[in-house]
What does this fold into?
Amino acid sequence: MRKTGNVRIGPASQSRTRKGVFLTFEGIEGSGKTTQSQRLATTLRAMGYSVLETREPGGTPVAERIRTLLLENVPKNRKQEILTPECETALVLAARSQHMTHQILPALSKGMIVLCDRFSDSTLAYQGFGRKLDVELLQTFNHFVTQGLDPDLTFLFDLPTTQGLARRARSKHQNRLDRETQAFHRRVRRGFLDLATEHSERIIVINGRNSSDHIALTIENIFTTFLRAKRVSKL
Ligand SMILES: Nc1ncnc2c1ncn2[C@@H]1O[C@H](COP(=O)(O)OP(=O)(O)OP(=O)(O)O)[C@@H](O)[C@H]1O
Ligand SMILES: [Mg+2]
It folds into this structure.
């Protein structure tokens, strides 16, 4: 256990909750996270596993309200109050705290498989690399709200930002981040790839340019092998 100021960082809650499996899906806008999280959830349920499908920011009523604040995009003819990077970070972390306590930790302690569409790596990639805030400080704040819990495994969907944004542009719902510059999205992509290098034991990079079917099969193979190795039981 390490102490940073008043923030206790350590594995205490990790051991408390390790009954279940915590899997996260990360990547730039439009990289395929939601598509693959939903497909894997369907596959795992059909195999008899108990699955919680959730997302960030969000996952609880309060956290979903914070999500709206973070992602809402006012019409172009109306003036939008700019969120400072610090405000954006505080909102993301506040939502994560609610999500951890009320959804993720209880599900893991019941032995469920938790599939989470975005998590802590997104904070480091977007607010750290994208907004250029201090990554070490973000890691400390993140430990504070996650109670020291890291995902067991993370799938990182990687593809050129132009392709991800083109897929997003086909969607009717443009969010606040769709207005960011190409340079911002490139920094975010680079950030994710740096994190994958740093945490190669946890983060698996998936080529997001492949077909949805091909990716779904790859993920299913990797994850079912992981479940067998960990001897995760069906509830
Ligand atoms: N492998 C793929 N090839 C082509 N199109 C895809 C693929 N995967 C997803 N799509 C399509 O791209 C769009 C974005 O996919 P999806 O919503 O899964 O991405 P996302 O990473 O969750 O995006 P966001 O960051 O906006 O939440 C959707 O219209 C989806 O149908
Ligand atoms: Mg999505």
